[in-house]
Amino acid sequence: MVVINLINRRRFVGQATAASLLTLVPHQLLRAANSRKPLRKAMIVKEVTEAALEPLKAAGFQGVETSHICPEAEAAAGRAVAEKLGMRVHSVLRGWMHFNSEDPAQVESSLEDTRKGLRAARAYGADAILLVPCKVSGMPMPEAWEFDIAFDPKTCHVTRVAAGDNSRYEAYIKAQNHATDTSRAAVEKLIPLAQELKVIIALENVWNNLWVKPALYRQFVASFGSPWVKSYFDIGNHTKYAPPQDWIKALGPLIAKLHIKDFKLNPDGHGGKFVHPRDGSIDWPAVRQALDVTGYDGWATIEDGGLELAEFSRRFDLINEGK
């Protein structure tokens, strides 16, 4: 159990808030639904141009997340395009970094790439960047349904990743703990710039084999004790590890942004595939209820393709309505 003298007051309050969500009674859930605030609808684009944004505007989207990291002057021009259409560039998709690399030059390159992303985000008018700190692979590790994690709440070091004998996972445990330490060290170096620019570093664990259970992910994000480090929660990505509503309840106010896509589990609940929103195994009413309870009313970006924009917009609206 975490004791208060191991974490600062702000982190304790955030964790206590998340824990309290698990004990809400039905009338509290009803009150949360009745005070529902709509999610803000977005899609991912590359360059922020009128040609890219106008169809989205026509389909009812309010904003975009861009994967185009560019000089600040170009980003400012993109902001002007969005604002002209009454839209917003709300986030920059910085993506994968290599903070756990054994090569100091690669770590520094990742840091500099993130700094560029933060500066571009400020120029776009965005308030967050999506950042995947690193990944581990190439060693034995549990399947998604086999994870049974124990960890030290002070360091976020895992001591067990599956039930029973963990000797075959020793390399994975070591790699995960190294990734946690190096990612924390790198992000802490970036916090002063994030604070200066007023851009949140939103951490995502996108099948990178790290922080794969709600309690551990929450603790890692909370361990920074900074309002400039939060979670970018992808509803579809986390489904194979635990129901998304459980993640949302655990993370609570640590969620900065949402990605929307769906995941269809196999009949045995083990593995599956990505599908379009509302075509998979996600219980969207339960997800919406969990978001209501946390009070989340920020941006939700569809990370998907293959349907008409109007159809994506319609499905988003159903999710927004708790259906």
Tell me what the structure shows:
The protein has 323 residues and is α/β, with parallel strands linked by helices. The chain has helices spanning 9-20, 26-34, 50-58, 72-84, 104-124, 170-197, 214-222, 244-251, 284-294, 309-320, and strands spanning 40-45, 63-66, 88-96, 128-132, 147-151, 158-162, 200-203, 229-234, 255-260, 262-265, 272-275, 299-302. The strands form three sheets. Strands 1-2-3-4-7-8-9-12 form an eight-stranded parallel barrel, surrounded by six helices. Helix 4 links the parallel strand 2 and strand 3. Mean pLDDT is 91; it is low at 1-22.
Architecture blueprint of SSEs:
Elements: H1 9-20, H2 26-34, E1 40-45, H3 50-58, E2 63-66, H4 72-84, E3 88-96, H5 104-124, E4 128-132, E5 147-151, E6 158-162, H6 170-197, E7 200-203, H7 214-222, E8 229-234, H8 244-251, E9 255-260, E10 262-265, E11 272-275, H9 284-294, E12 299-302, H10 309-320
Parallel strand pairs: 1-2, 1-12, 2-3, 3-4, 4-7, 7-8, 8-9, 9-12
Antiparallel strand pairs: 5-6, 10-11
How would you describe this structure in keywords?
disordered N terminus; 10 helices; alpha/beta; 8-stranded parallel barrel; TIM Barrel; two-stranded antiparallel sheet; 323 residues; globular
